[in-house]
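Retro notes (design track)

What went well: tokenization of the new backbones is finally stable.
What didn't: we kept losing track of which sequence belonged to which structure.
Fix going forward: every design gets posted as structure first, then sequence, in one message. First example under the new rule, 384 residues:
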């Protein structure tokens, strides 16, 4: 890895978090950052980690790869984040860590959760995979807890293709993490070549008209491990750790990160602007909306919208070339069945189950916002 380039990238990331470059650690994917943090916290067999029952499969996977047990908490229907009363109830003598997720870019109750954890001598980790660049009560997302992990995958606040990083505040954890990171693999040449191909495709070929065809192809190739996808086939059907999982970030990713960070301030403004327009529409039509009081703490990476007959809405979106998202279409996205494999029992989480059956995400980085608002008019009868 180019050390000068690495330091430059870390400095830019640190500037968003009001910290210094030596508190930033780079990884091939965001989930790898979580896995490293959990190791630094010495999470292992017999330990429990509390997290929301409205998450991505890679989060409980990182826990299970270490022999620990994920313990889920139902979500608040207004924030899509873990209910704090549920977190308190879930704490046991075996609880080692609480994960605070900022879903779709919204942080909530992070300070209260961290105080609760301190009372029980439990670590806290902020899941900032949606939240980089945003704030909670005026402080950067990720700076309330003992540690935080961030994703720079496709469609995250800014992208390196795949990638992620960790932010650590505790000195003991930093010392532990240095030992953990001594086992990081360097990305293979084939990894870098695959990433560069995907950069080219997404920047030069992907457009609104071919969005659905290309996304379907990309997901198929990713499931079969033929390209660098968000989740490999093994990660969504098994709790066995994939080979070559614990990898460092490559120079190609760092260069792409430095490039795309330049556009982040503009994107943050655009996302907030579009979110207000979506919210105004939903309020006007008596549909489910985001409480305006949450806006100061919401980065709106995606805008959540609830629908009935979701597959029909998706078919209409494809026909009209609307890039709808399906994040958290299950309580352990994107797994649609056999959740018990990840220790989740659906009957225990009614709110998460209801929302995951209805959820879709509107794009907030859309420049032609009128097109999306017109689509909402077209599907008004399906909006909840």
């Amino acid at each position: 890895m180019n050390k000068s380039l690495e330091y430059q990238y870390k400095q830019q990331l640190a500037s968003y978090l009001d910290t210094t470059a030596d508190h930033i650690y780079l990884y091939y994917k965001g989930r790898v950052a979580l896995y490293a943090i959990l190791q630094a916290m010495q999470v292992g067999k017999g330990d429990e980690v509390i997290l929301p029952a409205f998450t991505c499969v890679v989060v409980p996977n990182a826990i299970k790869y270490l022999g620990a047990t994920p313990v889920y908490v139902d979500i608040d229907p207004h924030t899509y984040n873990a209910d704090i009363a549920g977190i308190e109830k879930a704490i046991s003598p075996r609880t080692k860590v609480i994960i605070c997720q900022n879903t779709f870019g919204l942080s909530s109750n992070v300070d209260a959760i961290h105080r609760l954890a301190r009372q029980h001598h439990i670590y806290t980790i902020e899941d900032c995979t949606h939240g980089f660049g945003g704030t909670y009560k005026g402080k950067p997302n990720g700076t309330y807890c003992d540690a935080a992990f961030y994703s720079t995958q496709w469609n995250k606040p800014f992208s390196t293709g795949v990638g992620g990083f960790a932010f650590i505040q505790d000195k003991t954890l930093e010392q532990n993490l240095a030992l953990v990171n001594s086992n990081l693999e360097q990305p293979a040449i084939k990894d870098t070549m695959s990433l560069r191909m995907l950069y080219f495709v997404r920047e030069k070929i992907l457009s609104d008209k071919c969005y659905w065809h290309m996304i379907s192809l990309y997901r198929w190739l990713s499931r079969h491990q033929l390209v660098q996808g968000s989740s490999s086939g093994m990660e969504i059907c098994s709790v066995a750790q994939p080979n070559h999982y614990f990898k460092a970030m490559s120079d190609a990713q760092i260069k792409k990160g430095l490039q795309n960070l330049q556009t982040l301030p503009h994107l943050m403004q655009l996302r907030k602007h579009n979110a207000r327009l979506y919210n105004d529409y939903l309020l006007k039509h008596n549909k489910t909306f985001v409480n305006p009081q949450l806006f100061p703490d919401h980065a709106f990476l995606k805008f959540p919208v609830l629908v009935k007959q979701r597959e029909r809405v998706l078919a209409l979106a494809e026909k009209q070339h609307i890039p709808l998202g399906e994040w958290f279409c299950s309580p352990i996205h994107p797994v649609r069945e056999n959740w018990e494999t990840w220790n989740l029992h659906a009957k225990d989480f009614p709110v998460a189950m209801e929302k995951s059956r209805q959820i879709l995400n509107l794009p907030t980085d859309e420049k032609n916002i009128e097109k999306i608002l017109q689509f909402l008019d077209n599907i008004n009868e399906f909006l909840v």
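Added context from the reviewer: The radius of gyration is 20 Å.
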